Amino acid sequence: MTNTAKKEKKQTGSFYTQNKIAETMINWAVRTGDENILEPSFGDGIFIENAVSRCETLGNFQPKITAVEIKPNLLKFFSTVNTMFADFLSLNFASQFDVVIGNPPYIGIKNLSAEQHKNIDKIMQKYSMKTTKNASLWFPFVLQAIESLKIGGRLAFVLPFELTYVRYAFSLWDILANNFSHITVNRIYEDFFPAVDVETIIFFAENKGKTTKHVEYNIYDTINDFANNDPKICSKIPITEIIANEKPFVFQTLNQSQKTFLLTLKEQQIITPIFESCKFKIGYVSADKNYFHPNANLVVQYALSKENLFPAIINSKEINSDIGLEIDFGKCKSNLYVPKNITESDERYIKLGEQFGVHEKYKCRQRKPWYITPNIEFPDVILSVFGDTPKMIINAGKYAVSNSLLCGHLKNGSAKQFLCRWYNSLTLLSLELNVHSLGGGSFVIIPGEADKLDIVQNIPQNKVAKIFDELNKMVKNGDLKKAYELGDKLVLQDIFNFSDDDICVIRDAVKTLQNWRNPHNRRADFANRILHFN
Asked: How far is the C-alpha of 533 from the C-alpha of 479, rounded, in Å?
């Protein structure tokens, strides 16, 4: 694929579906051949070709198919199909179709034109909903598809896995549950969209006009397994669990022994909610990193007073170098400029900021005065927010912490005790179960998700010093993964009497979820399976 083609796909949100996937979806949705069928974003035409073939197989050589596409110059033309080159969201197909099927575009709503925004707003208003800025175009596509279906109709879409957990989709699940009698989410381990780092699912909904309280969740190893309706895992998920932001689709991805083991740990209170011990918040937002964190030369040049410079940690790099599990005063050289006692030197530096337009930046415009950064945190512990093995350290130097990291404020116990509870594979499993990922499968921990984490219960205080020292040595060696593994030995096995088999169950569960989350891991793992099988 050329760079131009890749750029165009990203801008339009158009990624085309494998034929086996399209064929299986058509076979599920088209059952008599006499259905009135709509494909609202037909792209390369793979669904249309399969729909025509399916209807002919069922004996209908004059199928009723409407195909809509906004980009006619990229696409095939079907002489036997009612083809419309238009924006699906601008059309009125109220209750016209028995089947709506396709792969809606994945593009941020914020990137659309003013006219497209008007169309989306009209659709959302039908359901008394407001357009969410961080939503994707597939969201109003699903709503418009529901509107386009007749009573008894069926919907089959390729959708991003984020449908199952993003907050803005919770209202959509309520709408789906009140419009269809049967909803199925099909998840396939084999990557059927290798051109895009967004995990996708196959979404089925049938019998419009009825209601349901559950979603059927089927997990398949391969595309062929999906085509043959041979799932590896089947479960039912209550709609209420999805809307409650419990991420049930991730939990149900585990095998039964892993789920049972984890639930037993919760029942026995070996793992407890982290918010009972620590509350995490975001750090301060400076609005202009360079200005509010003056380097040593600027401090000297403008004679900035030490009393207006707070020692600060501004990013994860400052805790990932030679820092172990606690950072003492003086170890970090960054400062946050907070001019509370303004001298002539400060007036000069404030004028410098105004010359460069710092005071006009959005966050600064909300402040009075603009140069005072609010919500400065001096947390007990600091947590990095990216990576499979996030780093937590004790803020022994009482640094201010920016919003590039999370600030943890302890409610009980010592900071060393809390870190000893953190570093083990059970924490990694809880992270996988509760934290969302960005494109490409990268973690980003936010306070609300941090509150949902579980960690092992308190460790006896007389054991803390030795465990902490051993973990600290490992972290100073620069291997966070081995620090978590060491915690399995020092805490899970030596303190809580976990067996080797128990540790394997936990680590296998972590690996399973990491592979699902990270498309590169999943592709590599699947390729290795094929090589081993052959």
From this structure: 33
Burial of residue 362 (number of CB atoms within 10 Å: 0-12, 13-18, 19+): exposed
pLDDT in tens, 390-447: 999 999 999 999 999 999 999 999 999 999 999 999 999 999 999 988 767 788 899 9
What is the rounded CA–CA span in Å between residue 297 and residue 408?
A: 32
The set of long-range contacts for 116-120, using a CB threshold of 8 Å and a minimum separation of 24, is: 116/87, 116/89, 119/87, 119/89, 119/90, 120/89
How far, in Å, CA of 80 to CA of 475, rounded?
A: 66
Q: Who's near 403: CB < 8 A, 6+ residues apart?
A: 282, 283, 284, 285
Residue keyed to tokens 């003056």? 294
Q: What is the rounded distance in angstroms from the CA atom of residue 485 to the CA atom of residue 483?
A: 5
Kindly state the tokens that stand for 89: 């969201």
Is 382:402 a contact under the CB 8 Å cutoff?
Answer: no
Report residue 44 as tokens: 């390369």
Tokens of 391: 């780093």
Angle at the Cα of 375 (from 374 to 381), degrees rounded to 5?
Answer: 145
pTM confidence score: 0.89
Q: Specify whether the CB–CB gap between 136 and 439 falls below 8 A.
A: no
